[in-house]
Every structure is written in C-alpha cells, then in structure tokens.
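Saturday, quiet lab. Running sequence design on the structure tokens for the scaffold JK sent over.
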C-alpha cells in the first residue's frame, strides 16, 4: 500500500468533527484506526537482538554497579546518587519482563534465559510471574473485567485508595524475599502452602481477587527451575547477611523498593481506570490506556522500554518496544489532530495523576 494514501478521513474533516470518547466506542470499534494500525506498520515488528541484548545487559550492569557503589562508599551523597542511578537502571532492566510475555518464543534465542539469570532471579522477579498472566490483560473479553489480573477501577474508588495503591509497593522487595526464602521451601513439603502461594503470590497483578491457575506443560518446567533458582538465591542472601552484616541487604532493599515505587506510579497512569467491569471493544480499551509520546523526555525514564506508548501497545501487543516510536509517528501523521488515535495521548504523569485523583473526588 502507498504510505502516502490516507486510510481515514482527511485531517481537516477529522478536526472539524467532535472527537468520540471511550464511551462512544464501547459498542463499536473505530475500524479506520484499526486498519491504519495494521497497514501502516508493515515492515515493523521484528525483535532485534542487537537492540535487546545491549540494552538489557547495560541496564543490569549499571544497576548492580550502582548498588555496589552505594554499599561500599563512605559518602552519603555518593551513596544516594549511586542508589538513584541503580534504581533507575534496574527498573529499565526489569521492564524487559513485559517484552518477554509478548515476543515470539523463537524471536530472541537465549534472551529469556539470559534475562532470568541476569535480572529476574537476582531481583526475585522471574519471568513466570508475568508470563501467562499479562496476556489475560490483553484478552478482548477480559480486559477491565473482574477476571483481569492487572485492572482495578481506581478512578472510581475512594480517594485514599490511590496513595495506598502506590505506597504499598515499597513493601514488594520484602514480600518477594519472604515468598522465595520461606514460602517456597515450606510449599515443597506442605501442599496447602504451595497452592496458596501459587494462587495468591505468583503473579505481578493488582487485582486482589485474581487467583492463578496451576501451570501446565513446558511452562510448568520453566516455573520449577526459575522458582528453585530464586528460592536458593533468596536463602543465600539472608544467610549471607548473618555472616557479613545486614547493611548491604538493607541498602539493596531500599534501592529496589524505590524501583518498585516508580513502577507502581507508572502502573497508576498506564490506564485511566474508568471501566466498571463490562467487556470493552479494542478501541475502548485503547482509549482507556495511555500514550505519553515525545517531545517530553521524562516519560522515557518513568515508562521505559516502550511503555510510554502503552495505548499503542494495546493495539499491537506483539510490536517490539524499539519499533513503537516509529509506529506512533506513522499513525499520528496519518490520522492527524482530532482523531481517535490522538485521544489516547496525554502530556505526562502529573496530569494523569491529577485526572484520576479528581475522578475519585467527584465520585466520593
């Protein structure tokens, strides 16, 4: 198809027509936008090892180097700066777990194993905690419903729920340490503990009513070695702290806690959280999700590895993170001002937090 031919009404006509809202698209999709997403992104979509590997490895090494410097230095200022750098770098490294859930299993040979050994197991967040869970969030009939592990109608909840939602993330590293060092060994000998741990504490979800089903087939095998590795690492970390002192562990936990806090803030603004539980069209899901496109640079820090294009990702879940900027440019250029596509673009985190907080106040 000629990329210069419009796939939707001219920009001038779109701008003159009031933009439809998510509510308008609850029953029917914007088919012109969906066709454009399909046709304009031809030639994109191949995961490139030359981008994935250096990005992930550099982020992980910078993160661990920052932790080491924060532990070894005698300067409080250096420790704070090193800790901040480490937290941001590890945050970026961790976000590749999102890519692992979407890329084809044959696309990046060895990357899943390498990521788990370098990032997932050391940070007690192996890929099984997201694989098989996040894909439910993308299912047409389950997004935004009670079956969605990654959805809560936060914009419709009480005002106090927002700060609680964010602050509780600070406890995540401690909870993971307890899960792998204590609950996994106990579960090996007590089936009830194993069942409870798997159903309640084996997924990176925010829906407290979500219960995970038992793993099967090849996935069950991956779960076993990842969980065993993370459990042995967690036990070694605690045992080592008895030998060398608790200061290194406390510093590392503080750094990773800040990483978890930052990720929770990103999660808070990844969607508008305005759905009350009904099934939604793809377009409605798109408009309930958030893009924070350039020119702002801050979103590259708090929404790394393509997550600043989260709404676009919901249109094309398998698109590699490094192709999302180009896909966005093509769609924005073709569909223009006033289009449905522009309706998912937002200026930044503060604006989004303010919008969600205002909604909770209005509905109180």
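Result came back. Writing it out in full:
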């Amino acid at each position: 198809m000629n990329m210069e031919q419009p796939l939707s009404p001219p920009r001038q006509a779109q701008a003159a027509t009031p933009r439809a809202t998510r509510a308008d698209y609850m029953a029917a999709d914007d088919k012109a936008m969906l066709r454009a997403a399909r046709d304009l992104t031809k030639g994109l979509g191949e995961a490139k090892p030359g981008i994935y590997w250096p990005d992930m490895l550099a982020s992980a090494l910078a993160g661990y180097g920052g932790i080491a410097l924060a532990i070894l230095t005698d300067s409080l200022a250096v420790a704070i700066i090193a800790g901040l750098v480490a937290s941001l770098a590890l945050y970026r490294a961790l976000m590749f777990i999102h890519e692992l859930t979407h890329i084809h299993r044959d696309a990046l040979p060895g990357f899943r194993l390498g990521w788990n050994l370098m990032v997932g197991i050391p940070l007690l967040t192996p890929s099984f905690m997201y694989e098989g869970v996040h894909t439910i969030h993308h299912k047409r009939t389950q997004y935004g419903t009670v079956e969605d592990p990654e959805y809560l109608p936060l914009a419709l909840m009480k005002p106090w729920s927002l700060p609680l939602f964010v602050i509780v993330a600070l406890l995540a590293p401690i909870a993971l340490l307890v899960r792998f060092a204590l609950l996994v060994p106990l579960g090996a000998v007590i089936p009830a503990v194993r069942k409870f741990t798997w159903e309640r504490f084996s997924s990176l979800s925010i829906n407290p009513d979500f219960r995970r089903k038992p793993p099967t087939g090849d996935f069950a095998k991956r779960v076993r070695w990842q969980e065993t590795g993370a459990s042995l690492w967690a036990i070694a970390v605690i045992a080592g702290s008895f030998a060398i002192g608790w200061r290194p562990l406390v510093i590392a936990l503080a750094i990773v806690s800040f990483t978890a806090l930052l990720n929770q803030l990103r999660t808070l603004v990844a969607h508008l959280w305005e759905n009350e539980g009904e099934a939604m069209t793809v377009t409605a899901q798109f408009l309930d999700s958030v893009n924070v496109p350039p020119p702002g640079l801050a979103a590259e820090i708090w929404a790394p590895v393509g997550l600043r294009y989260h709404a676009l990702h919901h249109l094309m879940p398998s698109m590699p993170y490094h192709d999302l900027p180009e896909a966005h440019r093509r769609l924005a250029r073709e569909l223009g001002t006033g289009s449905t596509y522009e309706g998912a673009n937002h200026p930044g985190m503060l604006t989004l937090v303010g919008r969600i907080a205002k909604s909770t106040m209005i509905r109180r």
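Notes for JK: The chain has one domain: 30-364. DSSP finds 17 helices and no strands in the chain. Ask whether to fix the surface positions before the next round.
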